[in-house]
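Bug #77: duplicate submission created two jobs. Keeping one. Sequence:
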Amino acid sequence: MKETPVNKIMESTLERMKEMVDVSTIIGEPMVTGDTTLIPVSKVTYGFTSGGTDLPSKQNAELFGGGGGGGVSIQPVAFIVIQDGKCRLMQINNYTSSADRAIAMIPELVDKLTELISSKGEESEATEAE
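Kept job's structure:
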């Protein structure tokens, strides 16, 4: 591929974008408070553009005009919560409907039902032992 000023602009823009976004931007540093660990999870979106043109000139054979740019959007979407040996995902979400909210609550509901069933089983075993 022929090296042109446009290629140099694109390479420079991409290199700068790579420097701004890394894995720790998506999965953040763990935060420990007491017996709970929170790990932030983010959605990263980025885009870039560049362009240019060579203009023929009698005085200068390499007259060039061009530019490049880019943007990054970082949006927190969830936290991974580790507490009492259990790991769960807490979403940060603006729900568009009650159905979305209900679907998001299913994992937590299953955990609570499992705890309830296991505690009832332990209570009945204790009652039978008396």
